[in-house]
User: Fold these one by one.
Assistant:
Number 1:
Amino acid sequence: MNTNTAVKILLVEDDKVTFRAVQRSLEKQGFSCYGARTLAEAVRILKHEALDLVLCDLMLPDGNGMDLLEIVRMFLMDIPFVAITASEKKSLIRDALRMGANDFLTKPFNLDNLPTVIERNLIREKIHGDYGRPRKVSVLIKTIQALIAALEAKDSYTSGHSMRVARHARLVGNALRLSDDELFTLELSALLHDIGKIGMPDRILNKTSSLEDMEYKTAKEHPVVGSKIVGKIDELQGVSAIIRHHHERFDGTGYPDGLSGQAIPLFARILAIVDAFESIVSKRTYRKPKTTDEALNELEKNAGTQFDPELTALFIKLLRNKNTNLKPQLKIESEMGNAP
Ligand SMILES: [Fe+2]
């Protein structure tokens, strides 16, 4: 969980003088500044820190600032990207904006303007990032039901699994006091997290023995495939990012992008825990189900490496508490009841 409230800015700039001046100015304004002089360094920070904004020079010694922007967007990170350019060339600025940069600064720029530029992009992102309530909930729910039915037809194990993952995710969401819209996004992410398995060959999906290298590689593509399927629906952009990252590990050794710690979206960190728990206690053709206690011990053992330790502790506490209602009603169930 992100407890640090200081706005975290990644500053990517190879020119020492500009770097120091901007860094000093940012820190003076109370921003928390992460510095990178190269593209490679910037990518490393991006993978491990929960950033709020990227301020990036377009000309870097080992590449172009646009390459970094492409990576930010590929990771489906909703981080405002402000391009710094030394050139007044309109085409360069136009290209940057067309590729998804939110704003730009032309060098030399007045450092006094920095906080205004940063704040207006943070506010814009907040408005943009707040997907709010989907306009046509009933249509959306029918679409989701159709997607789940398609996956269930292919993989019978997934049917009950997604629903149980959603209920457990909701338990954690309730304990974190998420808003109704956040709970809805978390539930939809849980229901659809394995939707990318639609694209997986049956012989891999149903294989009971261990997978060959190539098969394993194909199986590991399902988060990216799933996020692309869901990303086609405007209202599910937030869900798409969570699906992409539900197999990241807290220590950075997961896939597809090797994000670590709080750089992994919060809801994806929740899903990783409840998905693993559900798999451990479920009956599979190739192994016996384990008891709740055994499963919780396994989660505990992997807290801090595979899973977010704080969220794991919270989930374990909830499941061990005799008063916890283990089958909370899902928001989607009440919406289905209300749908015309
Ligand atoms: Fe998965």
Note: The chain has a mean pLDDT of 87.
Number 2:
Amino acid sequence: MSTYLFQLSDLHIREPGRKAYGRLDTAPYLSRAIDTMLRCPQSPSALVITGDLCDFGREDEYRHLRALLAPLSCPIYLMPGNHDCLLNLRRVFPDHPYLGLSGPAHFSVQLDDLQLVALDSTVAGQSYGAIDAQGLAWLEETLKNCSDRPVVLAMHHPPFLTQIGHMDEIGLLLGRIELTQLLRQFSNIERIICGHLHRAIETRFAGTIASTAPSPAHQVVLDLDPMARSQWNLEPGAFRIHAWNKSAGLVTHTMPVGSYEGPYPFHADGTLID
Ligand SMILES: [Fe+2]
Ligand SMILES: [Fe+2]
């Protein structure tokens, strides 16, 4: 049996007709990403969106997001990022009980053989992330309860330094060492999947593979100079497909949003099939 966990991140949806940064209408970018998803040969078993769902966390933004997500029929798991407001998110998505009613929006759900564990790294009113003692205790208990199956741990703020200086300044600033020590105790964490960076990044972290996903809309400019300024651009958007089956394990693919020339089926000798 195969499980296809799709990951979107950093949608930054605004109210209909309003633009992020006064410049970027993020809604059609999300719609194009959903169109691309619906054209994929494999349907999502579930979709997780790793934070920054909306730009200012307003109720009207979440209502717009809800309408934009309507074409998808798979289970959708929403996570807050630093641009979100958990109160308004819960208000507009009352049919998403995993979000809980109060406190941080940590949750854990089983997707066939996989366990998706979502750790809320947001700090109200701040851009940086943190995992406090209660979050660590929740995570330890949760991981102990699913030690018999592969785990995908999702967070908005990546727990590693990305070398993009201005983003590392608003990364996971508190609880990173404690999180590392905790995760090292478990050998079944296949991935840590994050957002916040608006880029595809991978690294080794706490004995597993940690990554950030691109946005379907704007990307953070790739500049590893520690003094580089905060800038976004419109490189192609993308989403990720974390594909699990017992023989291959968990394999992550990155799918660019949009339609492209092709496909061109070909013979073994390199000639095209008409
Ligand atoms: Fe973001
Ligand atoms: Fe963020």
Note: Residues 51-52, 81-83, 156, 196 surround fe (ii) ion (ligand 2) (CB under 6 Å).
